[in-house]
Structure to design on (258 residues):
């Protein structure tokens, strides 16, 4: 597939999506959102792809939704089309793990996109924020909910109500990114983590991702029940037999995702 506002590639078991609107700091417009959904669907169907990487450029992962486009959209148009909602749905419920390779500006919808991913690797230059308040609106892609659950009420309030950005180190201290790396290494590190995930059993990875995500939706008792059911289910997989056999035979397992 060829795209205008993103590019995609396959590197072994990795599907890589790169946001590519440098003239607008990778602002998310309708075209880009549509193309992102298309690329995510392609990689979802591709059995060779076990883990995704979403990256922007060194200057900007994404500066958020395209304000120039949004300025023309009415409330009715937004409500009728869901605007970007299908993207958050797609990424939020994506069955394969997604590593976000962050650098430069990660703002508004860009941060909301990143927060819907699973592992966030950030360059030391990364600046994260929800600046929607500065243009008279508020986060609409899950920002108020995901940010609060991640950094707690008071930091989330400060970020959402003032629009102020935070740097990579502060984000790491708050648990908003998984790891901070030198700016030359953010993409290679993201691919390294993604490759490591891709080397594990795809069945175990998928269920483990589901279980961790449930922690944000369920109470502890229900979450523990959910985890136990998935754990039992994994004992029916060929990958479980292979993983444990390989351990006792002191060799690397060959996981097939079955
Ligand atoms: N939209 C459109 N164009 C943008 C942009 C954006 N978000 N951000 C940057 N650009 C464009 C600039 O207009 C400029 O283009 P030209 O003027 O050269 O044509 C170019 O990118 C370079 O930007 P600057 O000249 O401003 O570069 P600086 O380094 O001086 O500043 C900046 C970088 C990132 C601090 C600044 O550009 C900035 O403040 N950008 C806006 C950031 C922002 O407010 N982002 C939040 C947008 S609102 C929804 C879900 C989610 C959302 C909406 C709906 N639904 C489910 C319904 C999300 C909303 C948002 O994200």
């Amino acid at each position: 597939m060829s795209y205008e506002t993103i590019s995609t590639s396959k590197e072994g078991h990795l599907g890589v999506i790169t946001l590519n609107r440098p003239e607008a700091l990778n602002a998310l417009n309708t075209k880009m959102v549509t193309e992102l959904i298309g690329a995510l669907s392609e990689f979802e169907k591709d059995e060779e792809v076990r883990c995704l990487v979403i990256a922007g450029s060194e200057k900007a992962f994404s500066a958020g939704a395209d304000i120039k486009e949004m300025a023309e959209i009415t409330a009715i148009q937004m409500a009728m089309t869901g605007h970007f909602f299908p993207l958050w749905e797609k990424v939020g419920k994506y069955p394969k793990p997604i590593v976000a390779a962050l650098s430069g500006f990660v703002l508004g919808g860009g941060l909301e996109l990143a927060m819907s991913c699973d592992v966030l690797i950030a360059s030391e230059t990364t600046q994260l924020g929800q600046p929607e308040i500065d243009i008279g609106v508020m986060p609409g892609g899950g920002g108020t909910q995901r940010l609060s659950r991640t950094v707690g009420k008071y930091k989330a309030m400060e970020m959402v109500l003032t629009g102020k950005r935070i740097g990579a180190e502060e984000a790491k201290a708050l648990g908003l990114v998984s790891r901070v790396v030198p700016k030359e290494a953010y993409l290679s590190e993201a691919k390294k983590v993604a490759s490591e995930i891709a080397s594990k059993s795809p069945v175990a990875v998928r269920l483990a991702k589901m279980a961790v995500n449930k922690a944000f939706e369920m109470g502890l008792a229900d979450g523990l029940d959910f985890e136990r059911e998935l754990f039992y289910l994994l004992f029916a997989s060929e990958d479980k037999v292979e993983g444990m056999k390989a351990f006792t035979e002191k060799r690397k397992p060959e996981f097939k995702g079955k």
